[in-house]
Amino acid sequence: MNIDTLAGEGTNLKGRFKESLGDAVGDPALRRDGIADQAAGSTRKLIGAVRDFVRDQPIVAAALFSVAGAALLSRLRHG
Predict the structure, then answer these.
(1) CA 39, CA 63: separation in Å to the nearest integer?
(2) pTM for this one?
(3) Are 34 and 20 a contacting pair, CB within 8 Å?
(4) Residue 65 exposed, middle or buried by CB count within 10 Å (0-12, 13-18, 19+)
(5) Contact, 8 vs 41, CB < 8 A?
(6) Are 61 and 53 in contact (CB under 8 A)?
(7) 3-class secondary structure for the chain?
(8) Alpha carbon 69 to chain centroid, angstroms
(9) Cα 23 from Cα 27, distance rounded (Å)
(10) Cα(first)–Cα(last) distance of the chain, in Å?
(11) Is 15:60 a contact under the CB 8 Å cutoff?
(12) Model confidence over 5-32: pLDDT tens digits?
């Protein structure tokens, strides 16, 4: 677990609270803000998970990134 995972979970919790509060008081803007915070938190948690994977499995991660990079370059070349 790293700082991105922890910060993502905190942002996700904050977003759930805002969404619930927005529902309770009838504030659609607060509710939307909460949903956006949850999406940002989930993204940050995903980044943390990728960082953990790269740290724990560097050879597998390098192979996966090489394959993904080659696929991207091929796609860019062939349009």
Answers:
(1) 29
(2) 0.75
(3) yes
(4) exposed
(5) yes
(6) yes
(7) CCHHHHHHHHHHHHHHHHHHHHHHHCCHHHHHHHHHHHHHHHHHHHHHHHHHHHHHCHHHHHHHHHHHHHHHHHHHHHC
(8) 20
(9) 6
(10) 39
(11) no
(12) 999 999 999 999 999 999 999 999 999 9
Pull the structure tokens for residue 18.
């805002």
Asked if 26 and 41 touch (Cβ cutoff 8 Å), the reply is no
| Structure tokens given for 8 | 């993502």
From CA 1, how far away is CA 61, in angstroms rounded? 17
Tell me the average pLDDT of the chain.
95
Number of residues that this document lists for the chain: 79
Structure tokens at 56: 């724990």
Q: Token match 């922890």: residue? A: 6
